[in-house]
């Protein structure tokens, strides 16, 4: 009974949070045009009418936006405080990734493609891009946005928490773009240990991690114990959350060790930073 009450309480809080964000989005609408910064030449958007672009913006529940060459908004903010500015393409981490891995002749796998912003950036550099996401709505948005930019990556729905054995051929790539996903997983150890099975060269990983002071629990995988911070998530209904009600944030030392155990024996920490939600790291991991 106590467990049921706890789960019901979590569900009610989660629903309330999602509704609150939707109300915020509706009450604080962005202008449609007049954006001067971060404009993009969007192949199949630049020449369409304002009416058509506004209809496109309303067909899907966009949670981020870009700006075309005419200063018009393609997409929408998530809510008042999140993704309320034009997204930059390409993201600086993708340019850095290209410096490390020379993407021009590479096949890149992007996990957690969201609404295609990074997918487009990767498509500008890489020979081939495969993008996956655990939410079908993100798959649709990524396909739509990339197509209108003139790119056609392979995009499909796949939950990284599931058994990936039957999907390794679909995931096989030279390099992985791994941004903002690891800290949403409930079994990040298993995930990291499996990367070497389908990624041939390297991984660009950008993730939150737990400090020693934040660690509050331990779990076991293959007989080895890993300390972690239990982080509450809002589940599938919130596109900025993991797929379940909580995730495990690993310590940075364990993340590095797991990558090496998976075959990426050269791990370089490029940047560490403190953000609103906690400590975060950008690293490049390569097989020798």
UniProtKB/TrEMBL annotation:
Kindly state which keywords UniProt assigns to this record, in alphabetical order. Answer: Methyltransferase, Transferase
Q: What class of enzyme is it?
A: transferase
One Gene Ontology BP term is:
methylation
| Pfam family name, one | Methyltransf_9
Name the Gene3D superfamilies on file. Vaccinia Virus protein VP39 (3.40.50.150)
Keyword Transcription regulation included in the entry's annotation? no
Write one Gene Ontology MF term: methyltransferase activity
InterPro entries with a match to the protein in the record: Mo5U34_MeTrfas-like, SAM-dependent_MTases_sf
Instruction: Give TM regions.
Output: none
EC number of the protein: 2.1.1.-
According to UniProt, the name of this protein is tRNA (Mo5U34)-methyltransferase
Q: Which organism is it from?
A: Calothrix parasitica NIES-267
């Amino acid at each position: 009974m106590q467990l049921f009450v706890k789960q019901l309480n979590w569900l009610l809080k989660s629903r309330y949070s999602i509704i609150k964000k939707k109300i915020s989005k509706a009450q604080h609408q962005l202008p449609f045009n007049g954006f001067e910064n971060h404009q993009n030449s969007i192949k199949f958007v630049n020449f369409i009418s304002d009416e058509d672009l506004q209809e496109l913006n309303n067909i899907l529940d966009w949670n981020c936006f870009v700006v075309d060459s005419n200063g018009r908004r393609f997409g929408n903010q998530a809510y008042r405080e999140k993704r309320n500015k034009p997204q930059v393409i390409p993201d600086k981490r993708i340019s850095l990734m290209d410096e490390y891995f020379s993407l021009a002749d590479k096949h890149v796998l992007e996990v957690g493609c969201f609404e295609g912003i990074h997918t487009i950036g990767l498509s500008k550099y890489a020979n081939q891009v495969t993008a996956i996401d655990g939410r079908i709505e993100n798959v649709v948005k990524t396909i739509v946005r990339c197509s209108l930019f003139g790119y056609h990556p392979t995009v499909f729905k796949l939950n990284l928490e599931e058994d990936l054995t039957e999907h390794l051929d679909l995931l096989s790539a030279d390099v992985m773009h791994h941004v903002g996903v690891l800290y949403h997983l409930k079994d990040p150890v298993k995930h990291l240990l499996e990367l070497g099975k389908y990624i041939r060269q390297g991984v660009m990983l950008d993730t939150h991690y737990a400090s020693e002071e934040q660690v509050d629990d331990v779990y076991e995988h293959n007989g080895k114990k890993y300390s972690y911070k239990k982080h509450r998530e809002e589940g599938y209904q919130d596109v900025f959350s993991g797929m379940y009600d909580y995730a495990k944030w690993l310590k940075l030392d364990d993340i590095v060790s797991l990558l090496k155990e998976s075959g990426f024996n050269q791990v370089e920490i490029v940047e560490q930073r403190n953000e609103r939600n906690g400590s975060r790291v950008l690293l490049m991991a390569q097989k020798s």
